[in-house]
Amino acid sequence: MVRFYGNIFNNKKKPGDGEHSHGGILFEYEFFANVIEIRETARLMVTQLLRLCAVFGGVFATSCLSNDII
């Protein structure tokens, strides 16, 4: 399982009255971030076979192409 904690940061803050600012990098953290969970489910045998055929086909096409160039 992969967990992704995504924070979208778009904050333009101007100093208030009596405050001053210096150039720099400001880090602000959000304590309640969005959480996206990605769960891998069981794959069908047909899907596995199709991916294996795609790999073999890609290797074959690449070897034929490189053989024609050489």
TrEMBL record:
Protein name: Endoplasmic reticulum vesicle transporter C-terminal domain-containing protein
Pfam assignment, any one: COPIIcoated_ERV
Domain Endoplasmic reticulum vesicle transporter C-terminal span(s) in chain numbering: 17-62
Source organism superkingdom: Eukaryota
